[in-house]
Amino acid sequence: MTNSPEKIIRLEQINYLYHETITALSDITFDIYRGERFAIIGANGTGKTTLLQIMNGLVFPSSGKLFFKGNEVMRESLKDKGFLRFFRGRVGYVFQDSDVQLFCPTVLDELLYGPLQLEISKEEALERAFEILKMLNLEHLKERPTYMLSGGEKKRVAIGSVLTMNPEVLLLDEPTNGLDPKTQCFLVELMIALNEAGKTLVIATHDLSLVDELQTTVGVLSEEHRMEKIGSTVDILNDEELLLRVNLVHEHVHRHGDFAHRHIHSHYLFHRHES
Amino acid sequence: MRERIPSFLLQLPTSDTFRLEGKSLKIPFLEKGLNHLGSLIRTAYSQWEWSSQEGLFQKTDARIKVLFLILFLVIVSLKKEVGSELFIGAALLFLMVLSRLPLLQLYKKIFFLSLIFGFLVALPSALNLFNDGEILFPLLQLPRAYPFWIYTVPERIGLTGDGLQGVALLTLRVINSLSVTFLVVYTTPFPEIIRALKVFRVPDSLLITLFLSYKYLFIFAKTVEEIHLAKKSRLLREIPPRGARRWVAGRIAFLVKRTQRKSEEVFNAMLSRGFSNSVKMYEPGRLELRDWITGGSLLLMGSFLLWI
Question: Which of B16, B34, B233 to mutate to test the interface with A (most CBs of A within 10 A)?
Answer without folding.
Answer: B233
